[in-house]
Amino acid sequence: MASIDKKEQCQICKKQFNSSELTLAAIVRPTVVDVIKKKYPNWNSNGKICKQDLDSFRRQYIKGVLETEKGELSKLDNDVIKSLTQHEIISKRPDKDKTHYSFGERLSDKIASFGGSWTFIIIFLIVLATWIAINSYVLLAKPFDPFPYILMNLILSCIAALQAPVIMMSQNRQEKKDRMRAEHDYKVNLKAELEIRHLHEKMDHLLHSQWTRLLEIQELQVELMESAKRERRNDKNEINRK
Ligand SMILES: [Zn+2]
Predict the structure, then answer these.
(1) Pick from 72, 106, 108, 130: most CB atoms within 10 A?
(2) Is 208 inside any structural domain?
(3) Which residue has the higher pLDDT, 240 or 79?
(4) 228 C-alpha to center of ligand 1: Å?
């Protein structure tokens, strides 16, 4: 039967073959056609191709797909490493900032923290008690601030009047620090959120493209196996005929 077949040309290797050994170019998988077209730009979809050439192009396509897969994985690794280093930069501690504060600002902070401590209250009480004791007993003859201690009242009201604005100054600065911390927290959260979304997209993309590629590779393998089977059957027939 094969001897009756008329001879036809394969458009890749230009050799003559029986028409049963040739495949129509129109039924070659488009992804494989892309690989062929890269090597043979004047590929004709009306022509024919021999089995050996078609199989070699199929193998080339699978090889290419596997290589791009590897490349994509290493790119993902790089992206994760890059974002990790960027993340470290963003999440620095805000209270360790090196902003320069003026002498007045530092002084108001110190006074406010000292004014709000037990040390200050105890010292203050001791000073007041000493003042009253001196003016009541020791200098009873000629006290510099006799009862009801008007000079002490004046000094006390002066201290209170000064302490209020100093505490307010310190509070303002504390508020600024808190605001900075909140902004920083927001930035870190936003970055984490974006990163997670980014990873989601990457995983979706990888899963989807890998799945379709895997299916394609499997189909191609089945085709290769079938063509090998056909070849073996043809060989057997020829041996039987002899
Ligand atoms: Zn050929």
Answers:
(1) 108
(2) no
(3) 240
(4) 16
**Run of H or E including 49:** strand 48-50
Strands 22-24 and 48-50: antiparallel
Is position 200 within any domain? no
CA distance 156 to 185: 43
Give the total number of structural domains in the chain.
2
Please give the distance, rounded to the nearest whole angstrom, from the Cα atom of residue 66 to the centre of ligand 1.
Answer: 25
pLDDT, tens digit, 9 for 90 and up, residues 47-91: 888 888 888 888 888 888 777 777 766 666 666 666 666 655 555
Tokens of 2: 């094969």
Q: What is the pLDDT of residues 191-220, one digit of tens each?
A: 788 888 888 888 888 888 888 888 888 888
Residue with tokens 């100093």: 166
Residues with CB under 5 A from ligand 1 (ion): 10, 12-13, 50, 53
Q: How far is the CA of 21 from the centre of ligand 1 (A)?
A: 10
Provide CB contacts within 8 A for 202, sequence distance 6+.
Answer: 76, 79
Per the domain annotation, does 197 fall within a domain?
no
Domain membership flag for residue 203? no
